[in-house]
TrEMBL record:
InterPro entries: Glyas_Bleomycin-R_OHBP_Dase (IPR029068), Glyas_Fos-R_dOase_dom (IPR004360), VOC_core (IPR037523), Xdiol_ring_cleave_dOase_1/2 (IPR000486). This is Glyoxalase/bleomycin resistance protein/dioxygenase. Pfam families: BphC_D1 (PF22632), Glyoxalase (PF00903). Belongs to the extradiol ring-cleavage dioxygenase family. Keywords: Aromatic hydrocarbons catabolism, Dioxygenase, Iron, Metal-binding, Oxidoreductase.
Length: 304
């Protein structure tokens, strides 16, 4: 059975590319990889040519999640197996592969309104052009075999979404959280990992949120970079939706900031890597073991 190795990249449709460039470079510590005719902006996090792809449109939401495979044979086997399960998987073609900077690409629809893109052969930047951040003091982001980070997808139908990610994409259960976050408002969340073991590359929950995505997580190698990014957000006036805190399941120390598109970025350090041979799936009763409270007095920097 072929398996996804990691979340290779994410694609967002955004209405304000200049505001996103400032946010990505000056706040998050990303590097611009490429821009095309004021319609596309791609960020680098490491040696890959692109990890976060922004396409100009009015959606301000998740468009696609790019899943990586170890070679053509693994990708083709996954496509055959997934098609046999009743999912329509189509070849993306050369033009899309070029835009995504990969050798080959297939796509399928997610029940929550975005695309999954299955790829191999991501383009690596020339050694003469190493990743450089203007803001990080540590060695960089946690990527490599663990991929770009994780996404939390808003489920239109929670049970259907969990079944799709586990049975169709063959993502592995990490754990569950069920918490009453407000009187009468209960959040059920399921967390999934790939074979390489980042605690979760995808999570899904049913929440009263109109967007397809709640957040995308970036993980840094130095805890100090979390604090410095937090201070940059405060200084620049970006809205901190959840202050510094700690999750009980992936043990991530992080905060959440609202992007210029309205969804959130989790900026964290210390997430665990799962060893399936010794992992026990558990259920938790709280999303955060401490912290992650709203921060008063912060407001989003608008693009007006």
């Amino acid at each position: 059975m072929a398996n996804i190795t990691c979340l290779s990249y994410v694609v967002f449709g955004v209405s304000d590319l200049p505001k996103w460039e400032d946010f990505g470079v000056e706040i998050l510590g990303l590097q611009v990889g490429r821009r095309e005719e004021d319609q596309t902006l791609a960020f680098r996090m490491d040696e890959y040519e692109q990890r976060i792809i922004l396409e100009k449109n009015s959606e301000d939401d998740l468009i696609a999640a790019g899943w990586e495979f170890n070679g053509d044979a693994e990708l083709e086997e996954f496509v055959r197996e997934t098609t046999a399960l009743g999912i329509q998987v189509v070849e993306g073609g050369k033009e899309l592969a070029q835009r995504r900077r990969v050798e080959k690409i297939y796509t399928c629809d997610d029940p929550n309104g975005f695309k999954h893109e299955f790829v191999y052969g991501p383009a690596i930047a020339p050694t003469r052009n190493p990743f450089r951040s203007k803001k990080l003091i540590g060695p960089g982001f946690v990527t490599g075999r663990l991929g770009a980070g994780h996404i939390l997808v808003i489920a239109r139908d929670y049970e259907q979404s969990v079944d799709f990610y586990h049975r169709m994409l063959r993502l592995r259960f990490s754990d569950y959280i069920r918490e009453e976050v407000q009187p009468g408002v209960i959040v059920d969340a399921t967390f999934f990992h790939t074979v390489t073991g980042r605690h979760h590359s995808l999570a899904t929950a049913q929440m009263p949120i109109p967007k397809r995505i709640h957040h995308f997580m970036l993980q840094v190698q130095d805890m100090n970079d979390v604090g410095l990014a937090y201070e940059r957000c405060l200084k620049s006036g970006y809205r901190i939706t959840m202050g510094l805190g700690h999750h009980p399941n992936d043990r991530m120390f992080s905060f959440y900031v609202q992007t210029p598109s309205g969804f959130e970025i989790e900026y964290g350090w210390g997430g665990i890597v799962i060893d399936d041979a010794n992992w026990e799936v558990k259920s938790y009763s709280q999303l955060s073991s401490w912290g992650h409270k709203p921060v008063a007095g912060t407001s989003i920097v608008t693009s007006e």
